[in-house]
Batch of 4 targets.
Target 1
Amino acid sequence: MDLSIYFDPVDQRLIYDLSTGKPVIGNTIRIHHQDQFPDLADFDIALIGVPDDRGALNNEGCGNAPNEIRKHLYELYPGAWKSGIADLGNLKQGHSQTDTIFALSEVMAYLIGNKILPVIIGGSQRLTFGMYKAYESLDKIINITVVDPRFDLGSGSNSELNSQNYLSKIILLKPNFLFNFTNIGYQTYFIDQTEIELMGKLLFDSYRLGNINSDFKEVEPLLRNADLVSFDISSIKGSEAPGNGNATPNGLTGEQACQIARYAAMSDKLSSIGFFEMNPLYDRNNTTSFLMAEVIWYVFEGFSHRKMDFPSATSDDFIKYTVPTVDFKDGIVFYKSRRTDRWWMEVVCGDDKQVKYAAHFMVPCSYNDYITACENEIPDRWWQVYQKLM
């Protein structure tokens, strides 16, 4: 497949402006410029700009984000990374939203199929719909994790796809390849109570900003369970990321955003990640574009620290614990990695379900879930998945 037909090269001025002679990212990765498209056989990560802000409600202008972020990303020094990184340039904007969504899904399906991590810089968060469509074409059931102060369920099934209704569009698709959806950092005063009830009925996971802040390390298992991560810049407090038409006083800190990116990319399961809604028109002193460059730096950093550890009953790399409970006579089985100290829970299901949901019946968790089970309570994470598999 010739991916080059989908892309415009990176603006040559960004390359001319690089600090000459310094081993910064812009001088150490392969960049699509002029007619030199990277040979993807040599790379593990592909950076993709999507300068399309159609459907970005209250945030028109975010289509200019990719190049603004690149200005700062290129000037950062890389870590001790062994993974190959390519910048494929900017996806050509389609005549319609549907054209862009199709092109993005085609490109991503090819990259994911070749075990290359696409890192998307938008553009409108409606592009998350295009990311999901890539998995549909691969016939792969996935978990989506979104960092967002809202649920983006929108209103009206007949309304055009936009940044605040893409989730409902995904849920309504038939056949559906969404196993689980997780929202990290929602703010209750932006959410209709009926939406919170709907999330519960759908057995989706949602975590308030306050809960995240009270014990931030609990975010890691949520991200370790994701195939696709979509990050809305409005989830970061406006004082630290003013470059967004929907910025608000409360939200994540810049440091937390970087940690989320690192947690996500460290997961062996993650196969795509996107950052959306950064708008240079609202930015001050390039604060937001600089922060997003640092966040993407942490994607590269996290990817370089992948451990390729996934529980197996026959592996000596894991310690197996069986915790008896009143509700389940066989108990709940936990696995702890000897190499990383990370935890998983095994959800009981039949052999046919284990084949169909091979990537989902082993649930990432934390030590706190193990303690909960030891106190004869069923961990919420385990119970949610159990109900879906039954």
Target 2
Amino acid sequence: MSEKPGLPQEEVTLQTIKELGQAEVAQVSPEVETQPFHCLTIIGQIEGHMVLPPRNKTTKYEHVIPQLVAIEQNPKIKGLLVVLNTVGGDIEAGLAIAEMLKTMSTPTVSLVLGGGHSIGAPIAVAADYSVISATATMTIHPIRLSGLVIGVPQTYEYLDKMQDRVIRFIVEHSRVSTEVLRDMMFRTGELVRDVGTVLVGEEAVRVGLINEVGGVGTALSRLSQMVSQRSVEGVQ
């Protein structure tokens, strides 16, 4: 990101933090030479086509996707750390972010801190490697729609198709089986509003959803290993 005319770099940085929640947008700069990893945060509620109230802490997908493109195009960025603390949000926006992550050639590691609920699960498993802190939680539940719902069979068929998209993505990019995932989604024995399952730290690893329990150090270490492996294999 180039400096805006007439504004000092400090003010540009403050504007970036306010607008995007990022200290720096992916860019070619001297700092990247010694800090080759970029950190992308996905926090609060993932905002999609509908603008949420100002009081909501949100991650706007139209901000995230251009950053992912910039990171992929930047040869000086060797790895991407995605930090999640989200309650979920718009289904299609979340899947769009997850699909972008999965198709990147840049090595990616996701780190779930606090929570990676609902549509945050596909984003977490979309990374090449996933880490969750010991006390972080992930809520697995069926798709829910807010607002006006038309009570016709086509509506329920649409919901089934959306549900299948989420399930298929998670199963293809993690070690959890379709049967186990569906069982967790539709379980009624736990208090997750009406149906679903809450996984805490090690439980998410045990069912095969996440790769490892750890923190920032673990995530960065895994990312370093992946980048080193690519260098050994001669991948630019």
Target 3
Amino acid sequence: MQEYFSPIDTTQFAGANLYSDTSYGNIIKSYIQGNDFPELENVHLAIIGVEEDRKALNNEGCALAPDYVREHLYKLFQGNYQSKIVDLGNIKKGNSIDDTYYAVTDVLAQLLRKNIVPIIVGGSQDLTYCNYLAYLKMEQTINIVAVDSCFDIGDGEHELNSQSYLSKIILHKPNILFNFSNVGYQTYFVDQNSIELMDKLFFDTHRIGQVRKNMEDVEPIVRNADVLSFDVSSIRQSDAPGNGNASPNGFYGEESCQITRYAGMSDKLSSIGFYEINPAFDNNKQTAHLVAQMIWYFIDGYYNRKQDYPIVDKSEYTKYRVSIKDHEHEIVFYKSNKSDRWWMDVPYPINHQLKHERHHMVPCSYSDYETACNDEMPDKWWKTFQKLG
């Protein structure tokens, strides 16, 4: 794996010689110039920089982002836990972009096989496609959540870029994508045909206004993901100016940190990527600093995981049965006694094989339970039932 990476030059980081014993600059085992490549035994999380922006639309320069983010991340203090994190350095830019894609896919697949969670710092968002291909190597169906102001569905007939990676994922054969969810899209950035397509595919889309009314409803969306792809252009320009496609509207910095902490706490989520950070547009490294804090919150969430996904043993859960539509349907809910989080059990359609067994227990919220109690079918239940067929 080492052959893919170039080491980090921390001599360029402000304050690199002032890290305390409990700051990440000393705690993370990093591939720094002059040091050996980190061992991967007993490691939980691995930070990977990707210096690739050849397919970034209107955001060339984002390849330089990883070290800007590290400069701030290394100054942050570890929380109340013993973290086991490595920083593998930056994946070298290939002679062609396909070389970079191959390297990223191979590295991620190797880490996933070792049950190490990759934290990808890009680079452009088309690298999400490489993240998807890594799971293809593992022959595992997955759910992807993208925090983004648009869908990045582009045109499947054109080449892969930062605003068309989703169509490449959808059209890929064989296909291992079970569900895609967008969090925070802004309607004026999205073609109506794309909204209709997402609906036909039974994918989940959540407008920025709906999400910000109750940020807690984001938690079950993210809890259902294997992959989280975060485009910093979904954060408002005043909080994250370092992006060529930044917009006046979007998430606040605190809300972005809240989302990544939810991601860290998800027992299911096994990789996360932060993309489109561009130092050329940044003010006083503000965006890099924010992303460093978002990574801190992800790590904090990871070390506060509850390990309470109700797949096998349901003895630690309270079970609720709700009949709706004059007993035409019964929906079974489970509430964790450990974390108070909710799930819905979506049954397989009759005479269908159990090929998506890991997706029938759907994370939900108390509001979904209330919806069922009001004799209405929760949207999550219906969409999942359609895809299981």
Target 4
Amino acid sequence: MTTFLHDGDLPADALAGASAVAVDSETMGLRLGRDPLCVVQLSAGDGDAHVVKLDRSTYDAPNLKRILTDPAVVKIFHFGRFDIAMFWRHLGVVTAPVYCTKIASKLARTYTDRHGLKDVSRELLGVDMSKAQQSSDWGQAKLTDEQVAYAASDVLHLHALRARLDEMLVREGRDHLARACFEFLPHRALLDDAGWEDADIFAHA
């Protein structure tokens, strides 16, 4: 396994030929209108990870944007709703097509309310992930080795999780519901960015 750290953007040939790419991001907090996007990490499922430290003065990352919008590449997230909204706000792109392992978990693993990446990875893959760097300073000029390793770990197992969750969704007859949710997810993220993040627009009230 190799983790590559890039400043500003992906290399033009990174992730070439991948049909699915795991994606995650690191920000200065969890508020769309307040907290900036700092880091985006990606993996083609080959054991390698690419960690991109963005230039927050321009967010000029054409190669990254190309991957996020490529219709031939499925972007795999865990709670993609937040990442996709952040990408729209800061990078100006709508990420699609997408797959969200958290949505898949909620549809397939109805026997539990534990759908965080750490819990799902432990049960389905036997992988115990550390979250020690989750709340660290991602806006600092130079990322620590621990931050880079943490960022990489968040995408290295998403391909395997997708495969396991797909098996469960098919078994439970809910794969069609999952696909519909994934298709709607970018629109849900745009609603969040537009101010409807706390509203259930489908509710009667």
